[in-house]
Amino acid sequence: MRVGLADAVGRVTAEAVWARRSSPAFDAAAMDGIAVSSAATVGASETTPLRLPPDAYDVVDTGDPLPDARDAVVMREQVHYERTPAGPVAELRAAVPPYQHVRSVGEDVAAGELLLPEGHRLRAVDVAAAAAAGAVDLLVRRAPVVAVLPTGDEIRPLGGAVEPGQIPDTNSLMLAAQAREAGCEAVVLPIEPDDPARIAAAVHAAAAESDLVLVVAGSSAGRDDYTAQVVEQAGTLVVHGVAVRPGHPVVLGLVDATPVVGCPGYPVSAALTFDIFAAPLLAALQGAAVQRRPVTRARLSRKLASVVGMDDWIRVRLGEVAGRVVATPLSRGAGVLTSLVRADGLLVVPAGTEGHQAGEDVEIDLLRGLDEIRRTIVVIGSHDLVLDLAASELRRRDPRISLASSNVGSLGGLVAVRDELCHLAGSHLLDPASGEYTLPYVDRLLAGRDVAVVRLVHREQGLIVRPGNPLGLQDVKDLTRRGVRYVNRQRGAGTRVLLDHELTRRGLSPDDVEGYAREEHTHLAVAGAVAAGRADCGLGILAAARAYALDFVPVTTEPYDLVVTAGLLDAPVLAPLWELLGSAAFRAAVEGLGGYCTEETGRRIR
Ligand SMILES: Nc1nc2c(c(=O)[nH]1)N[C@H]1C(S)=C(S)[C@@H](COP(=O)(O)OP(=O)(O)OC[C@H]3O[C@@H](n4cnc5c(N)ncnc54)[C@H](O)[C@@H]3O)O[C@H]1N2
Ligand code: MOO
């Protein structure tokens, strides 16, 4: 099919494009000035200037055709005019070589020259060059049509009501957009319930109208998982299950000669399945090359275990610390779509590998440019909402800046500072012996290192309870009451150390607290567990309680600090953060979260 140049970007050429016209189509002035005959200027110099009468030159502007009998241009700035009764005489103080400042016919592209090969994906510059070479439209390959077929009794169309237990159809939105990004047309079909006959009918109908059918979900072993069975009965089932995770239960087959990919329902699995299986197929259908991502080497910030026998696709955040790119693995859950949203790169741990040690050198497929990665502030340690607010505010102020924080608890953060795996560690570790926060741990873990500690905030820690505090919890000692279900933080988290300290002070033991062994990794996750009724109480910050409209019983106020290698304090990557911490507007926004005091924000306490 032929498409107009304005609509051709992203399409793939179906024939070679030969220039029909030269560009420029005539010898043209390349500068504003005067057109002259070079032969007439021989001998001109500073000491013997040449005086050209008005009929021996023509005034020209950039792009003008070169008048007959002229073969060179002198820039306006190098011409001195002298008024005479016969008109302005141009004085030249140097000889002009032939074709000086002249763009000759076909300098850009010559008629008859090959401009673009067949099978080339068109970009903005390509269509402009084609237009300059005389094209008005181009023969392009048909864009493959991708049909997206969502399945599942629980799936509801986007924008409509979603009852408890139902899931909005986010996968179809994503897969259709991925197909369009791959240069295809995408059609999202109505959601089919878990009924093999209906799914089969929909697959047949879609196969007749499209080049690839993506059946969403129903790929694994559940009672209502029919995709593989449908493909087997309606056509040919080629593969069910691959040694890739996420994406393990993918279904590959043919129905009525149209390829069908059964994408697992978990969003990360669905997205990666498209990348791994659908994208190369669609590129092949268009006769174009698959886009390979650039790669970089990086140091892994944490140990990464991986099951032997599966290629593990790990999403990572990246930043540059001490001159080396550091990769921090994000959540591995196939349902954690935000792991892909936040990812700067992908790390594939091959099937034959058990994983990697912290600090190991690995290869990363880049999802973002290295220049952006170099401007990323890497925070590892305890997490606080103020860091999220800072990340958002830094980006608003300068779109090139990112702040990536990963939560491994305060202790893990100090270890990451020690190992040069982050710029900053968020820490609020209480030393029960001295009652001091963070500094005793810095002395122990980072002994002999020149380390600075900058106060971020003071914040209130307290019991996060259901609205109205139905169990009447007033103090940490109430956690030992029968029937009170507590939700704890992970080992190494400052909030867990705080609980232990508060229990010890009261002569209580963790064994007295029901749910002590149950761990969540963030304040918000603790609040989420209480809000969902899966626990009655957890220790955390006021802002987390507020985020879920829960009640809060204050226990203590604690400092939350940023630990940084002193040599990095003046690093350009951190400058925007220090500036932000000094801003009154930012401090007001922090106080607005509730439970924060910014009196000492930005103060270096060591
Ligand atoms: N016993 C086993 N259970 C599971 C296995 C297994 O091998 N044995 N595999 C797991 C893996 S790995 C994956 S991946 C998933 C694949 O799930 P299905 O493709 O069968 O999909 P469902 O079970 O229907 O749904 C899974 C999950 O995805 C959500 N979903 C489904 N469609 C959409 C949509 N259009 N938009 C957004 N989210 C969607 C669905 O609600 C579920 O939460 O199976 C594991 N289980
Ligand atoms: O293999 Mo499943 O695709 O991990 O989530």
From TrEMBL:
<comment type="similarity">
    <text>Belongs to the MoeA family.</text>
</comment>
<dbReference type="Pfam" id="PF12727">
    <property type="entry name" value="PBP_like"/>
</dbReference>
<keyword id="KW-0808">Transferase</keyword>
<dbReference type="GO" id="GO:0061599">
    <property type="term" value="F:molybdopterin molybdotransferase activity"/>
</dbReference>
<dbReference type="InterPro" id="IPR001453">
    <property type="entry name" value="MoaB/Mog_dom"/>
</dbReference>
<dbReference type="InterPro" id="IPR038987">
    <property type="entry name" value="MoeA-like"/>
</dbReference>
<feature type="domain" description="MoaB/Mog">
    <location>
        <begin position="147"/>
        <end position="284"/>
    </location>
</feature>
<keyword id="KW-0460">Magnesium</keyword>
<dbReference type="InterPro" id="IPR005110">
    <property type="entry name" value="MoeA_linker/N"/>
</dbReference>
<dbReference type="InterPro" id="IPR005111">
    <property type="entry name" value="MoeA_C_domain_IV"/>
</dbReference>
<dbReference type="InterPro" id="IPR024370">
    <property type="entry name" value="PBP_domain"/>
</dbReference>
<protein>
    <recommendedName>
        <fullName>Molybdopterin molybdenumtransferase</fullName>
        <ecNumber>2.10.1.1</ecNumber>
    </recommendedName>
</protein>
<dbReference type="Pfam" id="PF03453">
    <property type="entry name" value="MoeA_N"/>
</dbReference>
<keyword id="KW-0500">Molybdenum</keyword>
<dbReference type="InterPro" id="IPR036425">
    <property type="entry name" value="MoaB/Mog-like_dom_sf"/>
</dbReference>
<comment type="function">
    <text>Catalyzes the insertion of molybdate into adenylated molybdopterin with the concomitant release of AMP.</text>
</comment>
<dbReference type="InterPro" id="IPR036688">
    <property type="entry name" value="MoeA_C_domain_IV_sf"/>
</dbReference>
<dbReference type="Pfam" id="PF03454">
    <property type="entry name" value="MoeA_C"/>
</dbReference>
<keyword id="KW-0479">Metal-binding</keyword>
<dbReference type="GO" id="GO:0005829">
    <property type="term" value="C:cytosol"/>
</dbReference>
<keyword id="KW-0501">Molybdenum cofactor biosynthesis</keyword>
<dbReference type="GO" id="GO:0006777">
    <property type="term" value="P:Mo-molybdopterin cofactor biosynthetic process"/>
</dbReference>
<dbReference type="GO" id="GO:0046872">
    <property type="term" value="F:metal ion binding"/>
</dbReference>
<dbReference type="Pfam" id="PF00994">
    <property type="entry name" value="MoCF_biosynth"/>
</dbReference>
<dbReference type="InterPro" id="IPR036135">
    <property type="entry name" value="MoeA_linker/N_sf"/>
</dbReference>
<comment type="pathway">
    <text>Cofactor biosynthesis; molybdopterin biosynthesis.</text>
</comment>
